[in-house]
Amino acid sequence: MSPVIENMDRMVRDIPAMPVVAQKVMHMLGDPRTTNITLGETLATDISMASRVLQMANSPFFGARQKISSVSQAIFILGHSALRSLIITICTKGLFKKPGLMEQKIWEHGVGAGMAARALAGKTGLMEKDDAFIGGLLHDVGRMILLVVYRNDYQSIFERAYNDTLTMEEVNVLERQEFGYDHSEIGARVVSKWRLPNVYARMARRHHADSADLLGLEENPKTIAVAAQANLIAHRLGFGLHEPDRRVEVVSTIYVEMLGLAKSDVLEVIETTLKDHKEFRDEFSL
Ligand SMILES: [Fe+2]
Ligand SMILES: [Fe+2]
Which ligand sits nearest to residue 168's alpha carbon? Predict the structure, then answer.
């Protein structure tokens, strides 16, 4: 019996919560009265979170240009936006307690899409690179949750998607059949449960929307186009898949048009994504 989610609220209750200190820090980051000192003190109350922050803070991916040796220094040097994206990255990674191949693949897909979204943000100037990275990382957080919470029931859909025997649309249809909701909807609920900025929930909910009409209804359709295009690039490059999905068009897409990019821009974005993936792959491994 597959667990059709009859009660979305109950499903949301099953979604792992964010660690308390992360919740506190995220809340503080949204409050203009917060100082770097109080942020550092709060983070230091959770030694394992603090040490993971410190570890990743030293990556040039998050903007480090010098050796960072304390959490307070990390906050000071990287700034609040990079800190937010670091914490969300750590918490999302923390979903996978015993990572097997499937977990590694979905994580790789998220990180790859995050890198593509970040490169798209750099090219278009539409949003902060850190925010775009998180939007990309979380676009399929619904699939991550299906794997973590409903592993046995999701395995077969996941494997078929991984092997490219299902199209993205077929995956969505199967998910709705099996669970009553697809990963886009589930993902948006995860993001809301974690009380992250709304923009990430919209990116997760709409990243498969592919008509101008649908996207026109959105508050800020271009941020959605960033996540949607990043997802296509991740598929085309084979991030989290058995092999690159050559069926996926990445240059002449509705999202590229919405973002006002030329073909050469898209090719540069792909190049940056591949370079980041190669350079930072180990830092993001599960
Ligand atoms: Fe998706
Ligand atoms: Fe995806």
Answer: 1
